[in-house]
Structures are given as structure tokens and as C-alpha cells.
Amino acid sequence: MDEQRKREWYAQVAGLCESKAEEFALLGYENVTAEDVWECVAAAYKEIPPLHRLVNDILSLKPTKYMNWLMLQMYKQSQ
């Protein structure tokens, strides 16, 4: 997925990502940002899916899936 298109799609769903980050903060995951939520969700796609699927994936993101993604990112960076 090219970076410019990814940024364009992020602009459309940034509010949802911010809302999900705030939800995570209420659950005790205080350092989660909207960009982190977006990167986690976008990592599952090779190309941008239909908007309704993207919205559903953001809204249904669970803290466990986010934490698993975050751990994988940390392992990748440490190598």
C-alpha cells in the first residue's frame, strides 16, 4: 500500500482512530495514540479495503489485538 494513499485514508478515519485511542485510555492503555491505532489496523491490509470494512476494523479493535501488534513491532525493531 503506498504511503500517500494510506495518509489520505487516515485523514478520513482519524476521528475514529482518536476515539478508539481515547477508549483504550479509559481502559488503562494511556499511551495509545490515534496513529498507533491506525498503524495497527492498516498493518492487516496489503491494499486499502472498502471504507465500511476499515471503519468496522477500527471500531472493533480490541486491546489484546493492539498489544499483540505492538509486541511484534517491538520485536521487529530490536532485530
Strand-residue fraction? under 5%
Question: Could you give the order of the helices and strands?
Answer: HHHH
Question: What is the number of strand segments?
Answer: 0
Helix count?
4
Terminal-residue CA separation: 24 Å
Which radius of gyration do the C-alpha atoms yield?
Answer: 12 Å
Helical amount: over 70%
Shape: globular
Query: Sheet with the most strands?
Result: none
Low-confidence stretches: none
Mean pLDDT: 92
Class by SSE composition:
mainly alpha
Description:
With 79 residues, the protein is mainly alpha-helical. Helix content is 73%, strand content 0%. The protein has four helices and no strands. α1 (3-26) packs across α2. It starts with a helix and ends with a helix. The model has no long low-confidence stretch (mean pLDDT 92).
What features would you highlight for this structure?
79 residues; mainly alpha; 4 helices; 73% helix; 0% strand
Question: What's the SSE blueprint?
Answer:
Elements: H1 3-26, H2 34-42, H3 51-59, H4 63-78
Helix pairs in contact: 1-2, 1-3
Summarize it.
The protein is an all-alpha fold.
